[in-house]
Write a structure and sequence with these properties.
mainly alpha; about 85% helix
């Protein structure tokens, strides 16, 4: 279990670095470019923090934040729960639709009576 957590943690940090690099290599002109550049720097900092502290450090950071700001932590947890619930509901509905479409019989044209007037 610990190995899986460590592997996922390393994948997350690597993914953040990849996104940071992709943003940094994009067009950085104008206001949008400045915002993307700032986002790239912050992602790089988060990835570095994750690599330095490990999964236990992330848990400690969350606990510390929850102790310092309990109301905003609970609000964030509630929002995260809502978002993940809506995503799960959407995925479930999408799977039902895909299953229904793939298991239905193909439509065949029905025969109509022609009038003989």
């Amino acid at each position: 279990m610990v190995k899986q957590v460590d592997a996922q943690h390393e994948r997350l940090a690597g993914g953040l670095r990849t996104v940071s690099t992709q943003i940094r290599e994009g067009d950085t002109s104008g206001v949008v470019g400045q915002i993307l550049s700032e986002a790239s720097q912050r992602l790089e900092a988060v990835a570095g923090h994750l690599e330095r502290t490990g999964p236990q450090g992330v848990v400690q950071d969350l606990r510390g934040y929850a102790k310092r700001n309990p109301s905003s932590f609970l609000l964030g947890a509630a929002l995260a729960g809502l978002v993940s619930g809506r995503l799960a509901k959407g995925v479930k509905a999408g799977n039902k639709t895909a299953t229904a479409v793939s298991s239905s019989r193909p439509c065949t044209p029905s025969r109509t009576r022609r009038s003989t007037a």
